[in-house]
Amino acid sequence: MTTAADISNRIIEAVMAQKLPPGSRLGEQPLAMLFDCSRTIVREALTRLAARGIVTVSARRGWYVIEPSQDEAREAFEARRVIELGLIRQVAEGGKGVSKEALKQLKSHLNREKAAVKGTDVGARSFLLGDFHVCLAECLGNSLLADALRDFTARTTLIAMLYQSSHDAAQSCQDHVEIVRALELGEISRAESLMAAHIGTVQAALRVQAPSDPLAQLRDALAPVAKAQVLHTSPVPHLPKQRSPKGADDSSTYLGALL
Question: What class, spelled out in words, does domain 70-204 have in CATH?
């Protein structure tokens, strides 16, 4: 029988695979039909995800995937820095290094990443690149922080989609390779520096625009006519109206069409 945890995990995976973009609607009835369960179970799963900051609910729109603001994007990356750099720093403080079994698991994950980067499955590639950070936390022995990182990684995936990240997947994979190599060599400080640089590069690749003037359109519309005529003396050529791609304005993407 499908549980609320099963549904919430699938939604998190879909977000990390970039199959659920920011603002996607999550209808209770479609989800109940998809997972063959009651709407009560679906509502419990969505409530859990709301508490984790992945979805939100509106009286008019219902449940939908969050659309992080610029401030929320900055905070998400700051949280990841604190968690991930702290995890690596603890390896040095413990003095034991990373176990052979943990390194074996990390290298196995890297092999899957490399294969995905060379392949055509964008969803698998996106998921594995994000899941590396969760895997690293688990291998360093902290399952609680791994759970927290899973949520923050899902949020930063949404942020990357919303702000059209230009970060290269192959470079991200190579960053992961270098971090694991430093851990294997016992160069913990270097691993920490590499992780800091990696997170900073991912954040810097976001196309975050400067805040726009919320009154610009109204200010232009209400400008005195005489002043408007002076400002617009040059003829403006008529431009054909650009048509949006089919389906681009459809904000009601359901999970059932994506998984």
Answer: mainly alpha
